[in-house]
Amino acid sequence: MKIIMLGAPGAGKGTQAKQIADKYSIPHISTGDIFRANIKNGTELGQKAKKYMDQGLLVPDELTCDLVMDRIQQEDCKNGFVLDGFPRTIPQAEALDAALVKIGQKMDFAIDVDVPDENIVNRMSGRRACLNCGATYHIVSIPTKVEGICDRCGNSVVLRDDDKPETVQKRLKVYHEQTQPLIDYYKKQNILKSVDGTQPMEKVFADIVAILGE
Ligand SMILES: [Zn+2]
Question: Its GO biological process terms (predicted)?
Fold first, then answer.
C-alpha cells in the first residue's frame, strides 16, 4: 500500500496521513523528517542536503528524490508507506516515478483531501495561540473558556501572522501554481482518489478507509 497524500496547506492531510499510518501499520514519511534523520546520522545524502539548507537554499528535486527513495527502500516500508509533503511539484513526481520504475515499483494511491480555499482561510483565521505558553485554540472548535484569554496561563491569545488571511492566501497561491497540477498528473495514472475534506475529521478518515479497504 504505497500512498501519496495531496491537499492544500491547512486541508488536514498530515492528520489523515498519521491516522492511515496507524491503522495500516505503515510508516508516515514526511520530507522534513527524512532531512532531519539523515542530517542527524551524518549520511552522505544528509551532508549534501545540509549544504543547501545552511545556505537557506531549497534542496534540489533530484537530491530530495534520492532521500525519499533511500527511505522507502528501508525494511519498515516493505508493506507500504504514506508520503506526506512529497512530491510537491510535477518535476518531483516525475523524478519519483522514474526512480520507482527502476526498482520495479509504482505508487498505488494518491489521496486528495479536497477543501475549498475559503474554508481553509476561515479555519486558519479562527486559530488562536498563546505566545506565552504555546497553547493553541480555535474560536469554533476549541474555544478558550474566557474569550481571548489562555485557559492554561491567563495571558491573551492572538491570531498568529502565519494564520492571517493574507499569509494563508499566499501559501494557497503557491499550492495552486505548483502542487495542484499533481491532481491531474495522478488522475491520468488512474490512482487519484478525492475525499471531501470539509467534513469532520473522523468522516474524512472513514472515507479514506472505504477507498483503501479495511
Ligand atoms: Zn498560555
Answer: AMP salvage
